[in-house]
Predict the structure.
Amino acid sequence: MLMLVSFVSLTDIILVASWKLSVAYDEYIITVAASLLLMCIGLIYRGLNRSETIAVVTICTSLMVAFTSAMALLNYVFLPNHRIGLDQWLLQFDAVFGYNWADMVRWSVHKPILNELMRYAYLSSLPQMVVLILMLGLGAQIRRLHVMLMTLMLSASLAVVFWILFPTAGPSAYLMLDQETASISHQVLDKAYGKKMLDLLVYGEEQIRPSQMIGLIAFPSYHTVLALVGIWFSRSLKWMFPVFLIVNLLVFPATLAHGGHYLIDLAGGLILFLICLWGAELFQRRFDRQEKPEINLRPQRTSMSHPA
C-alpha cells in the first residue's frame, strides 16, 4: 500500500511540475501533515509495543488519507480531458434497457421518505469506510482490513485510469428534469453538478484545490464499489452487519437517483469490485500467508517472560 501511495504521489509531482499546473499547496500541506502525524503515532505505538491494533488503525488510516488525496489530484491533473467520452454510448445502452435517469429521479421524488433514506445512505459511503477501518483494526481482524484497503486502492486506481482514458460526465449533464421535479428532488448530485462536470471536462480548473474538488468518475460507479465493500467486509461484524447490509442495499438505487449515474455504471462497479477483491485476496495469499490475525489478541511477550 505504501508503494502504491508513493508511486501515485511521485506521478502527481512529476506531472504538476512538467505541465506547470497551479496547485493550492497550502491545502495539501495540511493533508500531508495529517497523514504523517497518523503514521508517526502508529509507528510509535508499534515501536513501544503498546498496542498493535491502534498501530494498525493509525497506519492504515494514514495510508488511506495519503492515497485518496494523491489519487484525486491525479484525476484533476488530466483536466481538461478532451479524449473520446462514453456518455452517448452509455445513454444508448440505458435506453436499450428502458432506463432513463430523469424518470428515475421523478420516481424517487414521489416516494419522499425513501428518497431521503437513499440520500443519507449515499452520503454515508465514505464514513462507512472509516467505521470499517476502526472496527476491523481494533477488533484485530488485521487480514480482513488489509484485503479491504487493497481492494479499495486497486479499484480506485483502475477507475481513475479508465476515466482518464474514457471520460464520462453522467446522465445529469445531458438529460433535463422538469422544474417541479428539480425543485423537490433534493439530489446529492443535481443538474448543476452535471454542468460543473462538463465545464471541467472542457475547460479544466484554473487552480487545483482539494477543498473544491468533486467526484469525476461516472463509469464505473465507485459508490457501487464502496457499497459492495461495506457489505462484504462487514460480514464478520455480526451485530453491525445487518446495518451495513440495509444501508448499502439503499446505496444502489441511490447511486442512480442521487448520484447521477447510468444503469450500466452499477454493473461496471460490480465487475470492478470483483476483479479487485480477487486481486487483493491473491496478493494476500501470496505475500502474507504467514499472518495469523489471532496473534494480535495475545499479550506481547517481553524478555521477563522467559525462564532464566
Remarks:
- Residues 82-289 form one domain.
